[in-house]
């Protein structure tokens, strides 16, 4: 690791860390405004209940309380319901019914947080409890209570049916296949659980009509447009500021009722209103992820050639369908589920249902549901290997797409841009010492060693960097991103982008992109993001789209600046532009390298008292909107080694080898950090995490005592490797990487545990593989996915 600053790509310490490690970051809760009031939300104790009455009089009478807002107040303003990212509607504050435990019922604005919280206790709500739907598998039963009776004529809990792929072709192959395996599996409900909870500070200026909202959003511009739509405010009078964010992981893409309440609170009181969630509120009420019940099937030949794959999914979307994914795809990118393999055909069917659980859907480092798809196919590959008695690495090698098949069109119509999969898997196996590991395992089994050793593999292909805009939109907003580059007279630059870092280090890597393209130091580039008044429009950061889209915009806008600099240089040097050539940071005369001008000299000249060439109005600044031609497809091979104690069910992750290919790496150190984080996430999901509910819909994981986060104690020292297959359509050849490890690693961990349990004849067990679940599996008892700590 080096602290020196390169001229472009390479390892360098994160610029933003200078303020983070000195406690100088500025998060929403750090922002203090004069006269600021504080909000608190009253939440439903029931999973499903009719609201008979809400009495706020005692709360209003409490000294220090400035306003109590209910669903009825909002209904009067036409704001009781707001659109979700999936074109459903969600109650801002409940009017008719509450539909999940933790749902927002009333909002108190008071002089301080404590008074606001005290006032919540004084609000009297009369509920008539109703039966609830907690298990998605019962949501469509005749007798199931209808959750969304607010929707016109809604008589059941069905949201959508959706399919992709070729049903007839798939069926035909299954019919004549030599081998068929089928496996039910659950990807349980989990939560992104960022360190910083959600919150908002709204400041409505009655005089100017300007509304400023600070909130930790991953997509500030999309939020601004949605606020304009929801609140009916003119968009040019709205400024969304997303300051430093303490982790988003997808949970900060959407708009939560509390944000709207803070805005209404500010409009009603004429004062700035801040609302910050506590941990339990965050775990109970903000976007969850997964909750997919899947039945996957593979058709193959006796010698392990996979021919077809099909899957049926029951998707639990909670009480409001609020998933953040491109409008056309109700199941996100789940249909990339043929994964990394050369499979002739595939078919999937997904049914979405409502349940009495918190809304949301895709969020949590998911690339729009590829997480579930990768888990499915990688688990199925191991199930097939189990049935064929084949080594899972050999089975994968046999079926991986070959380098000469790229660009490759998948059976469900996705065009993978580039890859060399066997090389990446081979490197992972070499790093792991795969054959030695298998030999050790065999020896230990032969010796009757009590500790069970397991080796698990996964191979994943991701699809990240949405658009192009004509195929991908959210509520009609096409997924493209803007960038602006200003170059000051002294050659220092400011890059303004529409994406927003939540910890991914954009202030560093985006400066490195400009530095690489312009030949200046990254220290001479400031990156501005997260403020709609200061940045160009774009759809923000999720689905690992920043590098593929905004990063491309940053490169392209810098190239525009470079082209303009060339014209200025030609005037300065009195040669034709065609006679100039670019070497990092400098235009010089071809064949006469001494005769040239640095970008700093050119910047000064572009602002100077000189005659500028035709086509250059003055200075070098440029703007650009990047509409990606395709997604980028990063991939990787993961190998996990575990030791399982059969007496306690305890799993120790002994080693984890991860070889990632995200094309050209801008800052390898940041990429490795992203992978470390994602691998820890994977261990969390595979072994520890579960958003559990009792049968009445009571949330059983509303604190970090019940919803466990992996720490350094549970994680091994990661062993990382890399291969580099540049994206052919991305200006710098980079692919996104921010979610790769979260997507790819759970299957490797689960496969490793099940490999350890193979001597017991166990083929599959659902996550989370907590000690008691592993122990239950060994005892032949069903896995429990209904308890927080099982
Ligand atoms: N990078 C690079 N070279 C590449 C690819 C990426 O140097 N070839 C760098 C990027 O420039 C950026 C970082 O790695 O600094 C991640 O880039 P990218 O893959 O483009 O992902 P995004 O920046 O769009 O981040 C989003 C992604 C998502 S969707 C989730 S969820 C997630 C993740 O990032 N949430 C995170 N990583 C997270 N990391 C932190 N610390 N906090 C979160 O909330
Ligand atoms: Cu789906 S979690 Mo990330 O895409 O913000």
UniProtKB/TrEMBL annotation:
<keyword id="KW-0560">Oxidoreductase</keyword>
<feature type="domain" description="Aldehyde oxidase/xanthine dehydrogenase a/b hammerhead">
    <location>
        <begin position="22"/>
        <end position="131"/>
    </location>
</feature>
<protein>
    <submittedName>
        <fullName>Carbon-monoxide dehydrogenase large subunit</fullName>
    </submittedName>
</protein>
<dbReference type="GO" id="GO:0005506">
    <property type="term" value="F:iron ion binding"/>
</dbReference>
<dbReference type="InterPro" id="IPR008274">
    <property type="entry name" value="AldOxase/xan_DH_MoCoBD1"/>
</dbReference>
<dbReference type="GO" id="GO:0030151">
    <property type="term" value="F:molybdenum ion binding"/>
</dbReference>
<dbReference type="InterPro" id="IPR016208">
    <property type="entry name" value="Ald_Oxase/xanthine_DH-like"/>
</dbReference>
<dbReference type="InterPro" id="IPR046867">
    <property type="entry name" value="AldOxase/xan_DH_MoCoBD2"/>
</dbReference>
<dbReference type="Pfam" id="PF02738">
    <property type="entry name" value="MoCoBD_1"/>
</dbReference>
<dbReference type="InterPro" id="IPR036856">
    <property type="entry name" value="Ald_Oxase/Xan_DH_a/b_sf"/>
</dbReference>
<dbReference type="InterPro" id="IPR037165">
    <property type="entry name" value="AldOxase/xan_DH_Mopterin-bd_sf"/>
</dbReference>
<dbReference type="Pfam" id="PF20256">
    <property type="entry name" value="MoCoBD_2"/>
</dbReference>
<dbReference type="GO" id="GO:0005507">
    <property type="term" value="F:copper ion binding"/>
</dbReference>
<dbReference type="Pfam" id="PF01315">
    <property type="entry name" value="Ald_Xan_dh_C"/>
</dbReference>
<dbReference type="InterPro" id="IPR000674">
    <property type="entry name" value="Ald_Oxase/Xan_DH_a/b"/>
</dbReference>
<dbReference type="InterPro" id="IPR012780">
    <property type="entry name" value="CO_Mo_DH_lsu"/>
</dbReference>
<dbReference type="GO" id="GO:0043885">
    <property type="term" value="F:anaerobic carbon-monoxide dehydrogenase activity"/>
</dbReference>
<keyword id="KW-0500">Molybdenum</keyword>
């Amino acid at each position: 690791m080096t602290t020196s600053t390169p001229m472009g790509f390479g390892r360098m310490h994160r610029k933003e860390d200078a303020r983070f490690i000195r406690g100088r970051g500025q998060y929403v809760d750090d922002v203090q405004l004069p006269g600021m009031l504080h909000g608190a939300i009253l939440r439903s104790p029931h999973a499903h209940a009719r609201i008979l009455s809400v009495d706020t009089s005692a709360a209003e009478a409490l000294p220090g309380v400035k306003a109590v807002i209910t669903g009825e107040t909002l209904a009067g303003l036409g704001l009781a319901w707001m659109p979700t990212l999936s074109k459903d509607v969600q109650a801002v504050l409940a009017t008719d019914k509450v539909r999940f435990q933790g749902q927002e019922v009333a909002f108190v604005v008071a002089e301080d947080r404590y008074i606001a919280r005290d006032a919540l206790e004084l609000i009297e709500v009369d509920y008539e409890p109703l039966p609830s739907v907690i298990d998605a598998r019962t949501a469509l039963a005749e007798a199931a209570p209808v959750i969304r009776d607010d929707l016109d004529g809604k008589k059941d809990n069905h949201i959508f049916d959706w399919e992709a792929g070729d049903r007839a072709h798939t069926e035909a192959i299954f019919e004549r296949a030599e081998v068929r395996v089928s496996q039910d599996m659950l990807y349980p409900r989990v939560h992104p659980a960022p360190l910083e909870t959600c919150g908002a500070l709204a400041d409505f200026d009655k005089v100017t009509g300007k509304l400023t909202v600070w909130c930790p959003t991953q997509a500030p511009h999309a939020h601004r447009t949605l606020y304009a739509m929801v609140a009916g405010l003119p968009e040019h009078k709205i400024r969304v500021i997303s300051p430093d964010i303490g982790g988003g992981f997808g949970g900060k893409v959407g708009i939560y009722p509390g944000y709207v309440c803070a805005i209404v609170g500010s409009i009603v009181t004429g004062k700035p209103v801040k609302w910050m969630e506590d941990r339990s509120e965050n775990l109970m009420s903000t976007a969850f992820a997964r909750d997919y019940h899947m039945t996957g099937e593979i058709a193959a030949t006796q010698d392990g050639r996979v021919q077809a794959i099909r899957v049926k999914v029951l998707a639990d979307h909670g009480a409001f369908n609020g998933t953040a994914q491109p409008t056309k795809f109700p199941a996100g990118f789940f249909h990339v589920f043929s994964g990394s393999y050369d499979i002739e055909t595939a078919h999937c069917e997904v049914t979405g249902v409502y349940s009495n659980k918190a809304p949301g859907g895709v969020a949590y480092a998911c690339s729009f549901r590829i997480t579930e798809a990768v888990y499915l196919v990688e688990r199925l590959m191991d199930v097939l290997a189990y049935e064929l008695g084949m080594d899972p690495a050999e089975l994968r090698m046999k079926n991986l797409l070959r380098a000469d098949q790229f660009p490759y069109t998948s059976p469900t119509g996705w065009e993978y841009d580039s890859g060399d999969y066997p090389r990446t898997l081979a490197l992972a196996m070499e790093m792991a010492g795969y054959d030695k590991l298998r030999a050790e395992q065999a020896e230990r089994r032969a010796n009757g060693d009590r500790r069970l050793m397991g080796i698990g593999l996964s191979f994943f292909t991701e699809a990240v960097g949405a658009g192009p805009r004509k195929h991908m939109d959210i509520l009609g907003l096409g997924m493209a991103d803007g960038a602006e580059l200003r170059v000051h007279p002294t050659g220092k630059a400011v890059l303004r982008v529409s994406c927003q870092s939540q910890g991914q280090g954009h202030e560093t890597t985006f400066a490195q992109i400009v530095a690489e393209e312009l030949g200046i130091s990254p220290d001479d580039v400031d990156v501005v993001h997260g403020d709609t008044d200061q940045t160009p429009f774009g759809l923000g950061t999720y689905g690992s789209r920043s590098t593929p889209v905004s990063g491309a915009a940053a490169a392209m806008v810098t190239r525009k600046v470079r082209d303009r600099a060339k014209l200025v240089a030609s005037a300065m040097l009195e040669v034709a532009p065609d006679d100039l050539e670019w070497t990092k940071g400098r235009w010089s005369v071809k064949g006469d390298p001494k005769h040239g001008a640095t970008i700093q000299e050119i910047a000064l000249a572009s602002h100077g008292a000189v005659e500028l060439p035709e086509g250059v109005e003055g200075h070098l600044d440029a703007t650009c909107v990047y509409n990606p031609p395709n997604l980028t497809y990063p991939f990787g091979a993961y190998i996990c080694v575990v030791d399982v104690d059969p007496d306690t069910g305890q799993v120790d992750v002994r080693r984890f080898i991860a070889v990632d290919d995200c094309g050209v790496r801008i800052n390898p150190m940041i990429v490795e950090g992203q992978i470390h984080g994602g691998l820890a996430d994977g261990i969390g999901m595979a072994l520890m995490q579960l958003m559990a509910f009792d049968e009445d819909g009571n949330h059983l994981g509303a604190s970090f005592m019940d919803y466990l986060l992996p720490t350094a104690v549970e994680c091994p020292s990661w062993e990382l490797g890399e291969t580099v297959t540049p994206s052919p359509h991305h200006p710098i050849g980079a692919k996104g990487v921010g979610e790769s490890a979260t997507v790819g690693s759970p299957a490797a961990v689960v496969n490793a545990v099940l490999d350890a349990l193979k001597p017991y004849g166990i083929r599959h067990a659902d996550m989370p593989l907590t000690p008691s679940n592993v122990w239950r599996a060994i005892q032949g008892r069903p896995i429990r996915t209904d308890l927080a700590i099982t």
